[in-house]
Amino acid sequence: MKIDILTLFPSMFESVLKESILGRAIEKKQVEIKIHNIRDFSLDPHKKVDDYGFGGGKGMVLMPQPIYDAIESVRTKDSLVIMMTPQGIPYEQQMAYNLSKQKHIILLCGHYEGFDERIRDMVDMELSIGDFILTGGEIASMVVVDSIVRLLPGVIEEESHLQESFHNNLLDYPVYTKPVDFKGKKVPDVLLSGHHENIRKWRLEQSKLKTEQRRPDLLEKS
Ligand SMILES: C[S@@+](CC[C@H](N)C(=O)[O-])C[C@H]1O[C@@H](n2cnc3c(N)ncnc32)[C@H](O)[C@@H]1O
Fold it and tell me: Looking at domain 158-221, does it have CATH number 3.30.70.20?
């Protein structure tokens, strides 16, 4: 898979793309991620990318030209262009699964007051990572990249995905490690029993219970 990220703040991605599972996936060429500075595409002599909004109001608006040219510089017939915006479709795990099957994703990060409305016609999809306002689309696009890359073949063991929260619309079951007794709080006996079928049943029950208590909306979906 290839991912191109269009941003005004490329250096924000440096450490995120170097570390942990994401860093290893890039190193092993399981995913190719390139960061592009939208400012490089501005035709303005001062490399301006934003201006005051018509009709007044606070905040600078991103101009269409640099963004159009930035998108076109990386777009191919296989590309899916995604605008990061709080006005987009709420992002969730099923969408991460779907996006992980794409050949090429272009993520467009906004900033300031947001995008000139005409930029919306240049994209295939608008995504929001939640009902809150971030300063820019960089962190939002990192969320999307991280959640997609860990689903790519070979990046982490496939079995791990099947046990994670949201698979089958359930939250994950409780997990424990050493010590068996921590300040009087003990690991449930069933997990120490070595009885695989009982462990499987206990985990499923716990998953259902947690989901009922914390996210009944997920059970309604299933
Ligand atoms: C300050 S926000 C602009 C918000 C815009 N004025 C509005 O109210 O819809 C600047 C940029 O941050 C990004 N952003 C902010 N919140 C986001 C969210 N919840 N999901 C995805 N992107 C977000 C978008 O790229 C947006 O263009």
Answer: no
